Amino acid sequence: MEDYDYLFKIVLVGNAGVGKTCLVRRFTQGLFPPGQGATIGVDFMIKTVEIKGMKVKLQIWDTAGQERFRSITQSYYRSANALILTYDITCEDSFRCLPEWLREIEQYANNQVVTILVGNKTDLAERREVPVRRAEEFAEAQSMLYLETSAKESDNVEKLFLDLACELIREAQQNTLDNTDRAPVPGEGKPISYLSCCSVN
Ligand SMILES: Nc1nc2c(ncn2[C@@H]2O[C@H](COP(=O)(O)OP(=O)(O)OP(=O)(O)O)[C@@H](O)[C@H]2O)c(=O)[nH]1
User: Residue 49 pairs with which residues in a beta bridge?
Assistant: First the structure.
């Protein structure tokens, strides 16, 4: 027996140094690690949360932002249910690279993937280089959700992962409904569980 109702795979992508590892560590372990080194390849963490009485297991994959790991990290996109596309609000460069990340997503992720744009490091407001409005417009144009966070101050980090989990549950339930509503095609087999629950012994 599985000990959860839903299992979702979430992958974080974005330039090196934007704070992907810190976001994951803050959410899964409740800490902001000092002197966090660059991620090598990919890292993996699990956290189970409870949403509306359901156990939701989140498999969180933290990918390296450095270009040299790109061929490894791309292979993790395919099976992702959600992608957290992260930039640093104090680093214009990390925002300017977003179209490049979107091309990667388009090429390697499945077309059902839920993508959220995250501007991290809001605690460094005095060093902000990317205005909120600009990021909002970019996210809207790309049909992405958008949120700003601070892994350091723990601002919006819990909200980021829980909102994403809620959205994934909503989509999963919608897909189940769509499949259940589908009229049976003549000759198409029915699942055994359906037949057995209707049989009279
Ligand atoms: N002030 C501030 N610093 C942050 C925040 N998040 C991360 N940092 C710092 O940014 C630097 C990079 O953080 P990481 O989490 O390693 O960044 P990353 O995106 O995982 O980097 P790669 O593994 O190289 O892709 C570290 O020095 C962190 O301490 C934040 O919310 N606020």
Answer: 56
ipTM above threshold 0.90: yes
Structure pTM? 0.88
Q: How far is the CA of 96 from the centre of ligand 1 (A)?
A: 18
Query: For residue 33, which atom of ligand 1 is closest to its CA?
Result: 29
Query: Beta strand 145-148 with 82-88: parallel, antiparallel or unpaired?
Result: unpaired
Cβ of 13 below 6 Å from ligand 1:
no
Ligand 1 site, residue 57, Cβ cutoff 6 A? no
Q: Which atom of ligand 1 is nearest to the CA of 150?
A: 31
Give the pLDDT band (50/70/90) at residue 178: confident
18 lines ligand 1 (CB under 6 A): yes
Which residue, among 120, 114, 122, has the nearest Cα to 145 in the 3D structure? 114
Residues in the chain, total? 201
* Residue pLDDT, tens place only, 147-166: 999 999 999 999 999 999 99
Dist. CA 40 → ligand 1 center (Å): 14
Helical pair 20-29 and 157-181, crossing angle rounded to 10 deg: 80
Between CA 67 and CA 29 the distance in angstroms is 27
Mind spelling out the 3-state secondary structure of 168-195?
Answer: HHHHHHHHHHHHHHCCCCCCCCCCHHHH
The per-residue pLDDT for range 6-40, each reduced to its tens digit, is 999 999 999 999 999 999 999 999 999 887 789 88
